[in-house]
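question for whoever is on the cluster today: can someone run the full assembly for these? two chains, 992 residues total. i dont have access anymore since they changed the login thing
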Amino acid sequence: MSSTATTQAKDRVIIRFAGDSGDGMQMTGDRFTADSAALGNDLSTLPNFPAEIRAPQGTMAGVSSFQLHFASWDILTPGDAPDVLVAMNPAALKANLSDVPRGATIIVNTDEFTTRSLKKVGWSSNPVEDDTLESWHVHAVPLTSITVAALAEFTSLTRKEKERAKNMFALGLLSWMYSRSTTSTEDFLTSKFGAKPDILAANLAALRAGWNYGETTEDFAVPFTVAAAKTPPGTYRNITGSAALALGLVAGAHRATRPLVLGSYPITPASDILHALSNYKRHGVTTVQAEDEIAAIGVALGASFGGSVGVTTTSGPGVALKSETIGLAVSLELPLVIVDVQRGGPSTGLPTKTEQSDLLQAMFGRNGESPVPIIAPQTSADCFDAAMEAVRIATTYRTPVFLLSDGYLANGSEPWQVPAVADLPSFPVQLATEPNGVDAKGNPVFHPYVRDEETLARPWAVPGTPGLEHRVGGIEKDAVTGNISYDPDNHDHMVRTRQAKIDGIAATIGDLQVDDPSGDAKVLVLGWGSTYGPNLAAVRRLRADGQSVAHAHLRHVNPFPSNTGEVLRRYDRVIVPEMNLGQLAMLLRAKYLVDVRSHTSVRGLPFKVADLAEVIDTALQEVSA
Amino acid sequence: MSIDLGIPTVASGTDGVPTLPEGEKHNRKDFTSDQEVRWCPGCGDYAILAAVQGFLPELGLRKENITFISGIGCSSRFPYYLDTYGMHSIHGRAPAIATGLATSRPDLSVWVVTGDGDALSIGGNHLIHAMRRNVNMTILLFNNRIYGLTKGQYSPTSQPGLVTKSSPMGSVDAAFNPISLALGAEGTFVARTMDSDRKHLTEVLKAAAAHRGTSIVEIYQNCPIFNDGAFELIKDVEQKKARLVHLNDGEPITIGEDDEREVLVRGEGGSVRFVREGEVSAQGLADQVVVHDVTLTDPSQAFSISRLDSESMTHVPMGIFRAVDRPTYDDQTRAQVDAAVELAGGPANDDDLQSLLYGKDTWTVEG
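^ ran it for u. tokens below:
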């Protein structure tokens, strides 16, 4: 479909689709995203949905939304506030209105604004008809009834089935408004509903009807265009964090030349990684859906003992259950990747919302001195590289590794420049094949805890290797033979050696890079994980105002890059924004005795750029005063 | 969509595990590690260790392809004393770890050593799910009906009323019957034997190793320190004649000798009971005589037999309760991966990985 109207150019737009859980808002958002990606826009998304699969219809509890930020330049976040809100019912309007700046556009589905629906959310009069929305540019569209009317010819479909296509009508309308081609959505529908020709035809008709509605109704003046972003040449795809993370694990195992075995137990928001890897059998990936979180990591560790790259995926409550096995892996010194897709806590907390509050759990949540490296991806696409890095460290150093994603990275999506496999890092594992010592009689023997001098990693000798039969366990081991040892000096040596091995990883991770274009910044904004986008966007905003601000981001949270202390001391003020109550700040203060300033928010949502910019601006004023 | 993978249902538990060349054989010493055995003097574990070390050579497998995984407890020190690959893991989790190992390595003979606390209390969930899945491994459950390593608290198999440090007025916990539990958990090979009967123990181990799927062998084992004599009634030469019920496949189940001989018959409500042999015909019970059949798909009869066991040890069945063929979890899991790989034309190479990374929907930005 192509529009005949003239167009008006914009450089970026934020759209939020909001409706009932059953209204298909996530799918609508996904499709608009795919169409925008195909157009070459840079984009960033923020799905936001309730933990309940189907909360009571029309209630605030059941509101599901999908925010998409697309632009003609490289953007970093899904945006603070929508330029356009599509509200499919009164609950969706009420739940989202406070986020929509005055003057922005609101499209409401007036069919759902019945007395009964309004009452469900505590409205006694209709906001579309009274003056509630007078500060916004409102398009009152009877989406449901127009959709049903447009599908009049589909006599085999029930009214309910026709109503269900209203999200496609909305998508068609928005596609016209922003000059998106609907080709990829048409292809998507064809493959989804290919077996149900009536449903397919109805959805396609609804999509076209929405487009035509925009073009023919005078309510919508001219469509907007958002040009393609200037991105480096290459092949791109749109990808969510969990999809990228799953691919990174596959690529990591491929480059380690070991098979990948996942042990996992379903948990929100990590299950998508289990789903993805379960589909990669063709790549030799084995997945075991275990009976519980503990069994899941047990399966992974058992596979690692057998020579595979063992991986377990979970969220915070699952990590709590896996703690003892992670401690065992520290003691056994076997490779293991623990993926924690963090969500709001404590306890069950906010299963579908994001948070960064498992950092200290990952760092310290075990008995004894039990150091584990921690890696944190910074964007959805970066989950790929971070997962490969986790596999590299796990297999090179023979250690469990934490990979801390979060709900925002996992479900959000952005364009990803697909790397060439040949350019990926390579770290083939060398398994032990020969004895590495002699016994008292001079016979060759295998000593499982004799270490590589550079990495301090112990040999990985897998069952099936003749002559290297040995026993490992959670009891303290002799530093050479691996036999049980309760010797005081040996234990002291082993505790310090395990710590030194993890600390030594810093030698291979490079320095913390600081982005300070003016070179005279006095304030540093330092983050980890998914705050990368909001932090950098806020910093850019202040730089655009002519201010000097430095920005740095930690990929490795344990160990820290070697120069971290030096970087921190270089600035008059270090601000650490986190979606917790200051966990990284606590680690930095403890390790470097630097008075970093913590800025925190635990609302289950990523930081708003405007809020962060204000915090940084205040710091700039204080420092210069 | 489910795919018929054509898994062979009848295979040995050690199929796929490399064997020694023809004519070569390990001996007991080959399976003895250099570690000093540290169980208490008189512990039943010594007898089991000796039996296992004596039996393993009979498998004819390459030593490096045998792995023992244990949990925590006295029995779980077992792997340290065997010169095979071994892991002394954490409390209750050995079946889960063994599941990962067995699923990813079809060329290994995987053994789990556990105790009544390890398997039935803290690790109960993993135990039942291993049996439900039927992962190819052999679980040796040393049952001494007490927590030994923590110095004598009652366990999930301790008899009610047992006075221990944590139950000074007698335990009020009901006891698990591990055999009944295993049968309820869809166990495909379920057996019971005893530390003091080396010959019986060895025969049961042989059958357990030959079974493809999860074999669970409950081994009554005496703890001379904290629960000494727990099985005395079935070890005493005179007492055991009237109490030990030997299960022999294909034969009626009997107890006692000569005139005292009793035969097991089907009773009320799905139960079984012993009747004097001479009265079987008189009572018209000839068609109710239970002929032991380990291959019955329905575990009901085996379950009834397992319920003969009681606190007073009046009748204690010993031997193989059930041995049925059912596709194993690990064989099926590997078959799915193998089928996917084969369908795609062989193991994934760099090009295959590249197309996975691209996915279905890409766009190109020209330079």
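summary bc i know u wont read the tokens: The first strand of chain B starts at residue 66 and ends at 70. The CA atoms of residues 47 and 195 of chain B lie 6 Å apart.
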